[in-house]
Amino acid sequence: MIKKFLKNTGSRFSNSLTYKVTMTINWIFVVFCVLLLILYIIGNYQNFQDRSQQIILSALSYASVFSALLSLVLLIESIVKIFTERHKIQSAVNAILLAIAIVFCVSSTAIAGIIGFLSLGISQ
After folding, report:
1. How much is the pLDDT for 106?
2. Residues 3-33: pLDDT tens digits?
3. C-alpha closest to that of 119 among 71, 49, 67, 69
4. Based on CB atoms within 10 Å of each CB, which residue in 50, 76, 115, 120 is the most buried?
């Protein structure tokens, strides 16, 4: 029954608006994480205040966690699409890009946590 359902909805599933919108939102958050990381690095050279740096790090960690979770859900959906649809190459490319986004977001969350922990320890 599930095969029949997936077979009947195959063409609609690859072009679903929900998938495209969530993929776009995910990439917006990934770009936002990159910009926050660059802003933090520039802030070190521009001598931003400590509180501003902590706000940037907390925003980076929250955005990275959200983007990693959204990327994980989209990765699972892309893997399902690889096995159930005709557009296997597009789904495979999306899956590879989402895996890279997950690695980047998890590493930026770890970096933000480590830097935040070190900056709190030094200032006290």
Report:
1. 94
2. 555 555 555 555 578 888 889 999 999 999 9
3. 49
4. 115
Which tokens in the block code for residue 71? 């990327």
Which 3-state string (H, E, C) describes the chain? Answer: CHHHHHHHCHHHHHCCHHHHHHHHHHHHHHHHHHHHHHHHHHHHHHCCCHHHHHHHHHHHHHHHHHHHHHHHHHHHHHHHHHHHCCCHHHHHHHHHHHHHHHHHHHHHHHHHHHHHHHHHHHHC
Q: What is the pLDDT of residues 92-102, one digit of tens each?
A: 899 999 999 99
Residue length, the chain?
124
CA–CA gap between residue 68 and residue 89 (Å, rounded): 23
On whether the CB atoms of residues 88 and 82 are closer than 8 A, the answer is yes
Q: In one letter, which amino acid is 91?
A: S
